Give the backbone structure.
Amino acid sequence: MLPARWIRRTLIAPLLPVLTVLLLVSLPITLVVAAVASTFLPGRWRGLRVLAFLLLYLVADTLAILWLFVLWVASGFGRRIDQPRWQDRHYALMRTYLDVLVRGGTRVFRVGFDVDAEELRRVESAAEGAADQPLLIFSRHAGIGDSFLLVHAVLQRGLRPRIVLKGVLQWAPVIDIGLNRVPRFFVERGAPRGTGTRAIRELAGTMGPRDALIVFPEGQNYTPQRRLLSIDTLEEQGRHAEAEAAREMRHVLAPRSGGAIAALEGAPDADVAFVAHAGLEHLTSAVDLWRGIPLDCDLTVKAWRVPRSEIPRTREAQDAWLQWWWRRIDAWIIDHYGEEAVPDAVVEAVADEDVEPAPE
């Protein structure tokens, strides 16, 4: 259960600077311990890599919290926080904060990026030509941290991202304080059905130039187990045609069109960018991340921009259009990695997996 806001701000947020100071003071000892542990752990210098990223994370979070406090005071103790110039300053802080973590994390854990530069230039060129219009980003969702990498990429291109997130992420002070000052929506566990869809429509409806709403139509991170579970669920509901379509897409989850269509309805003039990526599918949990350090992998990214004039107008046509695009994303993964890019897992107890349904 998420603590009340006043507890998060007065107890949890101040704890990070304290932990940072303690780690810095004890660094000579922790370095020795991490170095010794690394000789026993599998992987190359796993203990030292984890310590390096932990130190980077704590220092970055401490500085970000202090800067957020400065912005709050300078904006009249929050009275002018909603004004455009103060919103821009918060986005600038997020851009720097995520850039530090992404650059440091990818070096520590040895993650590379393989971006389709030619296609990306076309996407960015189209964005410059429609700078006075908002942008909807529909992305594949697979692997730990892919949403933060996408937000980082959006910020680095001068856009201001809006996103719907799980409320539990507010345990992290920078996310809690920073994102609660800009347009976003946190979905709490047990929220009424349709809460996320309504939030997406409202966020899309208030977008302006350089705003970008990020939507993950799959609703949750792809795993082979979740793919099989979703197919079984569709079969049990008697939606056999949809189950067969989902079965044909081996490397993605069948998209749920509710959120995407709500975004299209809320922002009727916005273009759409589809984002596909591959390379993080094997990182489905913190245990996978720990076992894989150093990761020694490349994250491959592909993007397509669709002008609003090419997007269907009716809800039924938009649903079919979204399904077509997800089949294209699945085909791209196969073309890039081969037929066995993300092989189906042998699932012994799919029904026992704790899979949290995405907001409708």
The CA atoms of residues 177 and 242 lie 40 Å apart. The radius of gyration is 21 Å.
